[in-house]
Amino acid sequence: MKYITYLALFFSVVFYAQEDPVKQDSTAIHYMYIEGDSVPVTSVELKEVLVLPNLKFKDRKARIRYIILRRKTLKVYPYAKLAAERLESLQERLDGLERKRDKKRYAKIIQRYIEDEFSAELKKLTKTEGQILVKLIHRQTGETTFNLIKELRSGWRAFWFNSTARLFDISLKKEFSPIDEEEDYLIEDILQRAFQNEQLERQEPAFEIDFYESLNKWSKVDSATNSKD
């Protein structure tokens, strides 16, 4: 069985820093206290915080679309986050096993567990919620749902799942790309606001997402649309 490749999740470590009150120029020395010891540093790296713009909609229809999309995104994001955590645990456990037979046996146990855990809940999702979930799974794992099923089960099973999903207009091969699709940009905007408001627990995406680049692109598109109107 092939290993599933993941990008590392980034964890921030909190340090308490104290600035020398005497020196205030560009060469001022800062001190970080780590396990009781003060360590002099010339700069302090701060965690990046997105400054989100005020929400503006070109018309009532756009506002309603955003509200509906927000409700659906908040609903399915926990499933995508949980899926990423389960798959990461699976990979860590597989890395710790040496025999191929043990790897295969453990993978089957986790596969059944994931399917049993999600199947009942996923059946309750609407078509659009299902497609948003597929996108968010790609955001959180770096892999499409199709590829994950292919790795965990088989190529035929992945094809069958994808063909079945297409009957409901859901593509398991769908990727999350805020720069290419406006809906994905809106989903990312919804997530970032929910993270800052602590409505959702933050989980970093498996790949870099330039929020401001997407914001700039779709703001210009909206402006051009409004000018034509």
Secondary structure blueprint with pairings:
Elements: E1 16-19, E2 30-34, E3 37-41, H1 60-95, H2 100-122, H3 127-141, H4 145-152, H5 155-166, H6 182-196, H7 211-228
Antiparallel strand pairs: 1-2, 2-3
Query: Counting H and I runs of at least 4 residues, what is the number of helices?
Result: 7
Radius of gyration: 22 Å
Number of DSSP strands?
A: 3
Characterize the largest beta sheet: strand count, sense, and whether it forms a barrel: 3 strands, antiparallel
On the 0 to 100 scale, the average pLDDT is 76
Please state roughly what percent of the residues sit in beta strands, choosing from under 5%, 5-15%, 15-25%, 25-35%, 35-45% or over 45%.
Answer: 5-15%
Q: Could you say which structural class the secondary elements and strand pairing correspond to?
A: mainly alpha
Helix/strand order, N-terminal first = EEEHHHHHHH
Distance between the termini: 55 Å
Overall 3D geometry?
A: elongated
Arrangement of strands in the largest sheet: 1-2-3
Helix content: 55-70%
Can you tell me the residue ranges where pLDDT is under 50 for at least 5 consecutive residues?
1-28
What do you see in this structure?
The protein is mainly α and 229 residues long. The chain has a domain at 60-218. Helix content is 55%, strand content 6%. A 3-stranded antiparallel β-sheet has the order 1-2-3, with no helix packed on it. A hairpin with a 2-residue loop joins strand 2 and strand 3. The chain is elongated.
In short:
Residues 80-107 form a coiled coil. This is DUF4294 domain-containing protein. By secondary structure, this protein is mainly alpha-helical.
